[in-house]
UniProtKB/TrEMBL annotation:
The keyword Membrane belongs to this UniProt entry's keyword annotation: yes
Residue numbers of the full-length protein present here: 312 to 636 of 647
Protein name stated in the entry: ABC transporter
Signal peptide start and end residues: none
Record carries keyword Repressor: no
Origin organism lineage: Bacteria, Bacillati, Actinomycetota, Actinomycetes, Micromonosporales
Organism in which the protein naturally occurs: Paractinoplanes rishiriensis
Molecular-function GO terms, alphabetical: ABC-type oligopeptide transporter activity; ATP binding; ATP hydrolysis activity
Bilayer topology annotation: Multi-pass membrane protein
GO CC term (a single one): plasma membrane
Major subcellular site: membrane
Entry keyword set: ATP-binding, Cell membrane, Membrane, Nucleotide-binding, Transmembrane, Transmembrane helix, Transport
Annotated ABC transporter domain residues: 72-307
Length: 325
């Protein structure tokens, strides 16, 4: 058994490597707004241009088994549950009205990212329906879905290509002027202008390395070039320095203006401003409402608020010192 165990462990490591490669493919698809295994129906219809409404109707979801295996290791018993396709969303119902900003909150593993991925059809629901602009996303043309929805995640991918090429994935016909305008809106034009090769600077491991906050602003520039009517935003949990954080916030204010937004929220300012907060736990919405009401209700949100959101540091009182002449 020990002799078998060694190769098996080695195999499971290989699988993890192969699967991380697949995960990177996922990211590429995310950037190009295409999803593997998702097909357009022959009679697919366009989502009306400018649509801002998102509707979840009793959505149930289990990850497909191939993706389940990607997280499994032989030692991980919980991963074995996943290979059975454990339900991740169990009857999620909500509507985001055009122009609203809705915050999705909940403990780790509650299903927030999964919910957001069903909107852009990274996966299809197991039961129920997700509608964008009144069209079930499974009946929509992929191009109209791609044009309607923009996604900004914490680790948006940059290709080992020039800055201009990286941005043109969002809008192939964009002129240099369009790109500068987007970079300005995303609060990163000054930095790019200061680079010796400007827009032609090659990015990535063997090129210019952007910081986390800068990458996020480039992702926002992509969004501004594309101007989708719906934005799905996964707010950064990673620490950004305060200058970068402020720049990202300014860029986001521009990017979200006049659009419908579904935000996986990690910041106090976001939940305070949200038109609606959806609290997910174990694949179900357990509370919904606005910040003050949910705090007053004293349930899971109030608890999350204390532990996740209300952590903005209060200034330390100055230590008491006796005055010495
Ligand atoms: P976090 O705040 O930690 O990002 P989350 O609320 O976004 O968590 P999800 O990432 O949606 O939660 O995950 C919901 C559940 O689905 C978790 O139990 C997670 O382990 C599982 N899960 C996520 N991705 C996959 C996958 N590709 N295959 C199988 N199970 C998955």
């Amino acid at each position: 058994l020990t002799r078998l165990y060694g190769p098996l462990t080695a195999l499971s490591n290989v699988r993890v490597d192969v699967m991380s490669a697949l995960v990177s493919f996922d990211r590429v698809f995310e950037v190009l707004d295409l999803s593997p295994g998702i097909e357009e129906k022959p009679d697919a219809v366009d989502i009306p241009a400018g649509s801002g409404r998102i509707e979840f109707r009793d959505v149930h979801f289990r990850y497909p088994s191939a993706a389940d295996v990607s997280l499994a290791t032989l030692e991980d018993v919980t991963a074995l549950d996943r290979t059975e396709g454990a339900p991740v969303l169990k009857g999620v119902d909500f509507t985001v009205e055009p122009g609203q900003m809705v915050a999705l909150v909940g403990p780790s593993g509650a299903g927030k990212s999964t919910t957001s991925m069903l909107i852009s059809r990274v996966y299809d629901v197991t039961e129920g329906g997700v509608l964008v602009g009144g069209v079930d996303v499974r009946d929509a043309t992929l191009s109209s879905l791609r044009d309607t929805i923009g996604v900004v995640t914490q680790d948006s991918h940059l290709f080992h290509e020039t800055i201009a090429d990286n941005l043109r994935y969002a809008q192939p016909t964009a002129t240099d002027d369009d790109i500068w305008q987007a970079l300005t809106g995303a609060q990163i034009a000054d930095l790019v202008r200061a680079l010796p090769d400007g827009l032609d600077t090659v990015v990535g491991e063997r090129g210019y390395r952007f910081s986390g906050g800068e990458k996020q602003r480039l992702a926002i520039a992509r969004l501004l070039l594309k101007h989708p009517s719906i934005v799905i935003l996964d707010e950064a949990t990673a620490h950004l320095d305060s200058e970068s954080e402020a720049a990202v916030q300014r860029a986001l204010t521009t990017a979200l203006e006049g659009r419908t937004a579904l935000v996986i929220a990690h910041r106090l300012a976001t939940v305070r401003d949200a038109d609606l907060i959806l609290v997910l736990d174990g694949g179900r919405i357990v509370e919904r409402g606005r910040h003050p009401d949910l705090v007053a209700a004293g349930g899971l949100y109030a608890e999350l608020y204390r532990t996740q959101f209300a952590v903005e540091p209060t200034p330390e009182p100055a230590p008491y010192r006796e005055e010495v002449e």
